[in-house]
Amino acid sequence: MPLYRCFVRGENFPGELVGASQFMGFYTTRWIEAPTAEAAETAGVEMLRAEYRFSEEEKQRAPDARVYFEEVVEVPADTPQIPPNSGATWFEMDSD
């Protein structure tokens, strides 16, 4: 089955920065084996939903929380999967 590297951006997820709760954005990479790029996106969303940090059980998300797949690229099956399927880089959402 093909391997896809998915570069994902999320917006309006709950977070904390310097002790102040606010909505945050994130970037993360997920590696997905799927038959098509579209199936990789679907599996990637399900993977994120299953992770505690992104689940609704930890904190209430904003009603307009969204996940965007900025890049979905089929890569050779032996591509090193760095970083592994965990973690994210968080950023403060603009208040505009």
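That was protein one. Protein two is written in the same sequence-then-structure order:
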Amino acid sequence: MNIAGETVRAVATVGELPYIEEPAAVAPRDARDLSRLFFDRLAVLEEGTAEYQYARNTLIEINLSLVKFAAARYRNRADQMEDIVQVGTIGLIKAIDRFDLSREVEFTTFAVPYILGEIKRHFRDTSWAVHVPRRLQELRVDLAKAAAELAQRLDHTPTASDLAAHMGLSEEEVIEGIVASNGYTAGSIDMPADDAPEQMGNALADRLGELDPGLEGVENVTALKPLLEGLGDRDRQILRMRFGGEMTQSEIGEELGISQMHVSRLLSRILSRLRAGLLAQPAA
């Protein structure tokens, strides 16, 4: 077969796809054309089949260069590069699972934001001891720069009102940023508590309550409700049958007069849309 002006010889095939002996060694220019071929086939394959797994795994391997390209901008964090590549690969996999050739968008254009988003999310989740909104994370950096500049100019530690006037913010916003900055690091809950009676556990963790396991379910239902309302009647019916009625894909297909494979594709599309909607929601 001819890819990007070069001939790629397939000594074997998997189903209707060529067998790529070393997918990770495929040049980026060839990977683009191969990706179109594999995505086109993946769209009609039934999930869980050997050919489906081969197509999906090969797409991941031939596009790993995108992860390395995105990770290169973080080369100043060489000690974390292995983790960066791992989370970037998760972003690549998400992009592959959500890509649709009918969008007429190059896969590289579609995938890079997913990869970078996953890497940035990794830094947000691992750099801070307590999760805070992104605007407050960014405000912490701005406050640190402003405080250092004002300390030299004023010859004393700047107050909240000094910082507010310098940064063009209200005092309330500055105070909120200072309080949020305390979440960047945290003490261990296993540290001894000075006021703990001898007969009780002397660590703070021994005196903490437990989280209600039902809270996460309530949050998820609340977040999904407007997204479900935005679906069509048939999509909502499929979700009710699959997750409310616990029907198999074959049973749903018989009920709607469509094939099991069609039900599988519809469910994949619906769930991908819901996931994208949840990810697009602003952090609480």
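Confidence is low (pLDDT under 50) at residues 1-11. Keep this in mind for the problem set.
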